[in-house]
Amino acid sequence: MWLPFIGFIIGVILGLLTDWRIPDEYSSYLSIAVLAAFDTLIGGIRAHLQNVYDENVFLTGFFFNIILAASLAFLGVHLGVDLYLAAVFAFGVRLFQNIAVIRRIWLAKWMEKRQKS
Amino acid sequence: MKKIRGNDVILSFVCLVLGFMLSFSYQYTKDQATKRNITDRQWQKEYEYRQMLIHAQKENRKLKEELMKKQEKVRQIETSLANKKAAYVDLVKEAEQLRMYVGKVKVKGKGVEVTLADASYIPNEQNATNYIVHEQHVFAVVHELLISGAEAIAINGQRISHRSYIVCNGPVIEVDGVQHAAPFVISAIGDPNVLTSALNIAGGVKDQLVNDHVVVKIASKEEIVLEPIFRTNHD
């Protein structure tokens, strides 16, 4: 159970220790990738709480979403349309929805626990 | 247990990637923020400094213009001063020249010396006056010399000015009140060739003098020094 947490910590430390910098024009890719990762993670937590969690879906979703978002942003840059905004919008909306679902589940659990006690 | 372990490994890997991305992004944005973190206050300050700089530059330009104007003025003054100085120098030269002509200063130069002497042989007592040098002879020589361009003339070393007079006074002649006896040495500064040839013209002054039994000696000199006239005339 502690292994994912340790992995997270190690990732944070690695990220802080990395010295190389990406050029300015790729900053939108980075932000969208972060957003996609967040979205997938929250989605995974929600699925876990709803008992529909599937490892393969989560894994493929995590990496595929990141790559898709990045390629969408890439396409947008080359077409002259800010397509990454669409990705940001979609991910953001989904992020909020998932968080709302998680909150409701937790709230329901808590209420249940309180009624029992 | 083993399956859960595998799950955990994969999940931890995902978490590692996420953590990496998060912290990397955070660091990146922090860098960006510090790079172009210009607050309103800073803008204001920059504006203020810019304004001050512009003000200083304006002032500088004004001062520079003033300086250029002043320099121009100085240059004008200098040139006018130089012109004046040149004029003064010219005037001094001219004055010197005029003094030389008038006889107020000592002059020196090439010239001729004409010596008029009484005839050494007088055949007849009654005609003695025909054999001595008269003032008209001196006149003739002086005139001839002046006409031919002599710049300064002296008789027996006495400078003759434009106001000089020569009169016959018995056996001597008087130049500006100073008596001179024969032989008369008339020195003239000028081109020696011109002067001698002027005197030697056929039927000219020399011939006339010789006709009047005057012994004439004309010599070109490399250097003749004439003393200035110190005394005023008619006293």
From TrEMBL, chain A:
The listed locations are: Cell membrane
Q: Which residues form a coiled coil?
A: none
Annotated Gene Ontology cellular components are:
plasma membrane
Report the Pfam families cross-referenced here: DUF1290
Q: Could you confirm whether the keyword Membrane appears in this record?
A: yes
Positions of transmembrane segments: 28-45, 57-77, 83-106
What is the membrane topology noted in the UniProt record heading this document? Multi-pass membrane protein
Keyword entries, A-Z: Cell membrane, Membrane, Transmembrane, Transmembrane helix
Q: Which domain of life is it from?
A: Bacteria
> Quick one: where is this thing mainly located?
membrane
InterPro entries referenced in this protein's UniProt entry, alphabetically: DUF1290
> Per the similarity annotation, which family is this?
Belongs to the sbp family.
Q: What is this protein called?
A: Small basic protein
Q: Which organism is it from?
A: Anoxybacteroides tepidamans
TrEMBL record, chain B:
Record carries keyword RNA-binding: yes
Provide the organism lineage as a comma list.
Answer: Bacteria, Bacillati, Bacillota, Bacilli, Bacillales
- Which PROSITE patterns does this UniProt record tie to the protein? S4
This protein's species is Anoxybacteroides tepidamans
Gene3D superfamilies reported for this sequence = Protein of unknown function DUF881
Fetch the InterPro entries from UniProt.
DUF881 (IPR010273)
Q: Name one GO molecular function term.
A: RNA binding
Keywords on record = Coiled coil, RNA-binding
Regions annotated as coiled coil: 53-87
Protein name according to UniProt: Uncharacterized protein YlxW (UPF0749 family)
- State the similarity comment: Belongs to the UPF0749 family.
